Amino acid sequence: STRCAVPYGADEIRVTAGAKQALYTSAMVLFNPGDEVIIPQPYWVTFPAQVQLAGANPVFVDTARTGYQLASEDLERAITPETKAIIINSPNNPTGVVYEPGALRRISQIALERKIWIIFDECYSELVRAGATHRNVVQLVEETKRQTILINSFSKSHAVTGWRIGYACGPKHVISAMETFQGHTTSNACTISQHAAAAALQQDCLLYTSPSPRD
Question: How far apart are CA 214 and CA 121, in angstroms?
Answer without folding.
Answer: 30
